[in-house]
Amino acid sequence: MQPLTPQSLRASFVNTSKREAAEAIPPIKLDAIDWERHDIFGWTDRSNPLVAYVVIPVDDRPVGIMLRASKNKPKKTMCAFCEDIVDLSEVKLFVAKLAGPAGRKGDTIGTLAHANFSCSKHVRRKPNSMEGKADPEAFIAHRVDALRFNAERFARRVLGEN
Ligand SMILES: [Zn+2]
Questions:
Q1: Phi/psi of residue 73, each to 5°?
Q2: CA 107 to ligand 1 center in whole angstroms
Q3: Which of 29, 35, 136, 140 is most exposed by smallest CB count within 10 Å?
Q4: Domain range for residue 50?
């Protein structure tokens, strides 16, 4: 994805107040991130473990989304973003307020996702024996595409586009 700056990150949020966007501070310096290896970028809030943020490119524009995590412990289940069949742990249900008037009315949507948003890493792993070793590069490219597609679809739903 395109590198984010503190300014573009803050400006990307679509379902927060200005104050909430200003308080969305990632735990790592943005210039230390290898953006080419990220399809999405997310983190958990430092002071509130039930709040998380994820930035998803939509038509090359970053869309920042504030999420609420369910209080339940992470379950072994499939992440709806990366659909990894190996790492099924630490997948949580997150709920996002919709952007605009719908969100102010209280409308939300949910998704299952890796609690630490490690999806970009999962889709870049080498295929295991069940997944076919013939063409690891094609396998990874396909999974990267799927992650981008799934994440973008979620972001568009938050935006109220579908
Ligand atoms: Zn994932």
A1: -60, 150
A2: 24
A3: 29
A4: 6-159
Question: How many angstroms separate the alpha carbon of residue 142 from the centre of ligand 1?
Answer: 15
Q: How many domains does the chain have?
A: 1
Q: Is residue 1 a part of any domain in this protein?
A: no
Does residue 78 sit within a domain?
Answer: yes
Give the distance (Å) from ligand 1 centre to CA of residue 117: 6
Give the whole-angstrom CA distance, residue 154 versus residue 130: 29
Residue 83 located in a structural domain: yes
pLDDT digits (tens, 9 = 90+) for 24-80: 999 999 999 999 999 999 999 999 999 999 999 999 899 999 999 988 887 799 999
Alpha carbon of 121 to ligand 1 centroid (Å): 9
Q: Is residue 88 one of the residues assigned to a domain?
A: yes
Summarised one tens digit per residue, pLDDT across range 107-123 is 999 999 999 999 999 99
Dist. CA 23 → ligand 1 center (Å): 24
120-149 pLDDT, tens per residue? 999 999 998 888 777 899 999 999 999 999
Residues, CB-to-ion distance under 5 Å, ligand 1: 79, 81-82, 114, 119
> Strand 108-114 vs strand 91-97: parallel, antiparallel, or unpaired?
antiparallel
User: Which residues are 51's β-sheet partners?
Assistant: 68
